[in-house]
Amino acid sequence: MNATVEISSLSQRLKTETSHEHDRMEQLMEKAQVFANKTNYAQHTLAQYYFQQDVENLYRHAEVEKIIPDLDVRGRSQAALQDLEDLGIEPQSEEIATLNVGYPEALGWIYVSEGSTLGAAFLFKEAQAKLGLSAEFGARNLAAYPEGRMRVWKRFKQALDDANFSKEDQDKVIQGALDGFSRFGTLLENLDQLR
Ligand code: HEM
């Protein structure tokens, strides 16, 4: 029997090996009834803001900047902060969950944030239809990047794959992604308590 060894790209491994966490996020979002009213939506926006702060803290790694040279077009914490202002909320916490996250794990966290811009297309429509929000008021953090969601996403995946990480380093990126999902999951599980 001929054994064929399939070597997956990092982007493919990330998708496959974190898909159970993605499913869990969808379930948590459903449970939180994010679009049922503005209060729930505002708490979800707080979660987005805190998560984006965690992720953007990782942009400071020089190695991250080398692999992902277009970091300046990414990240949505300022958009989320403006949305919170629209919604009359001022974040009370300055805690950053990624102070001890190193490289290349940092790339896994950024993967979670960048990938979430795809699902955000659906969330953006809900925010518009159910709550009357827009890219100019309250739902900036869910709006597409000016260049378009898919284009910016594909460029991100390509950059990860072009880095040619060893299997061991790929494992670390995947662990970072699992940790990122875990952090967002904790925020979603505790939406009511976020201030
Ligand atoms: C109701 C909530 C959500 C929906 C409906 C949703 C939906 C989607 C969809 C449609 C895609 C594109 C799949 C594809 O083209 O292959 C996607 C990708 C992705 N989403 Fe979500 N999503 C949700 C929540 C989240 C959350 C909360 C996160 C992270 C915090 C997240 C992270 C990701 C990631 C990382 C990808 C990229 C997967 C890949 O590697 O291709 N999603 N999502």
Automatic annotation (TrEMBL):
Gene3D superfamilies, per the entry: Heme oxygenase-like (1.20.910.10)
InterPro entries found in the cross-reference section: Haem_Oase-like (IPR016053), Haem_Oase-like_multi-hlx (IPR016084)
Gene Ontology MF, one: heme oxygenase (decyclizing) activity
GO biological process per UniProt: heme oxidation
Region annotation Disordered: where it falls in the sequence: 1-21
Listed Polar residues bias regions: 1-13
Cited Pfam families: Heme_oxygenase
Protein name: Heme oxygenase
CDD domains (alphabetical): HemeO-bac
